[in-house]
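Hi P.,

Sorry for the delay on this. The queue was packed all week, but I finally got your sequence through. Input first:
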Amino acid sequence: MKIIILGAGQVGGTLAEHLAREENDITVVDTDGERLRELHTRLDIRTVVGPGSYPVVLRQAGCEDADMLIAVTSADEVNMIACQVAHTLFRTPTKIARVRATAYLTRKGLFAHEAVPIDVLISPEQVVTDHIRRLIEHPGALQVLEFASGLVQLVAVKAYYGGPLVGQDLGFLRRHMPSVDTRVAAIYRRNRPIIPSGDTVIEADDEVFFIAARRDIRAVMSELRRVDRDFRRVVIAGGGNIGERLAEHLEHSHQVKLIEHGLERCTVLSERLNRTVVLHGSATNKRLLEEENIEDCDIFCALTNDDEVNIMSSMLAKRMGAKKVLTLINNAAYVDLVQGGEIDIAISPQQATIGSLLTHVRRGDIVNVHSLRRGAAEAIEAIAHGDMQSSKVVGRAIGEIDLPRGTTIGAIVRGKEVLIAHDDVVVESGDHVILFVIDKRRIRDVERLFQVGLTFF
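Then the structure:
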């Protein structure tokens, strides 16, 4: 697939890295020539220096025969105009744009085909806010992903010493919880993936990815670790778009305090938010945290635009007694360094956003993609089509499907019914199949598995 990416920042660079590994024809456009040279040195891609919204630059990038334009520069207006130019002059089939400003996103009809022709809108702030919200709703989870409109969730938890399942094989889970159906999709032990079987034994500190119907998630989590009580008191550091959206979502069900350094922004937030206590000050100010009884806080969320402020304020809050700390980190290289110590959960906004973009790049009828383990693995929701003659999955039991190595089917959603994957479950046309792929090199094989052959009409 020929893809043009506008913007070589964190999101654009990470996306180019993902897609270049998968034998796509990638061209990256940016005004920063040095950043492009650095990407070109590492990746097998073309680069073009210049403003991504200029027709001459898009022509130079090969927009005339491109399959897809992905505009992820830091400027909403550049992304929007680039999509308009690509549509008007080059008839680019698929146009994806990152748009951050709420003022644009709330205007109904603005992004219709006859107005600003953007096929897919990506709002990183909303993606990250939803990601954090799910983690707050599931205390103890490292990651919570939703499929089939929320009917199914894939959850990552760390197995703690003393948990009921630690030291037991996975077959014990089914015997111990006969009324709850779940499947362990993968286990990461000392950062190495394990494809689980019935006799796989869970060890303390294993990172376990399991899939279950939404209603059963808490029950399964309790088997793997001590059950954390629900978060009630939330402190948010940073009143930017993510901090404001999270506070707005939580303030009617939680006690929320928001710390913002800018006085003018504090005034705006206090007018927009109804029940949130807005505090003017620095999240790294020990005295302020003491005055606000940080030791009573259930979760401290550091969501400023400064990685160092987020890391330092999180460490300070944790040492002063906050039960959990969640930290937003833009520099992906920091994520592995800090998570698991004093910082309980580190979130990379780039990785959260990448999944939304990959959903529209995958071949076959792929409706959901989540990038996991800093891009090393993926969770995919694909729709099965065809019949036994035209499809490699329809009409076959899961145990008969020739899955690529390192791939597991976790669940099938049929209408509103959730079927956890067992070897005797037969896939039907129209089923939503949820897969876990630990080896990104096998993605193309997974896509081919769900593409319909020529005999299907």
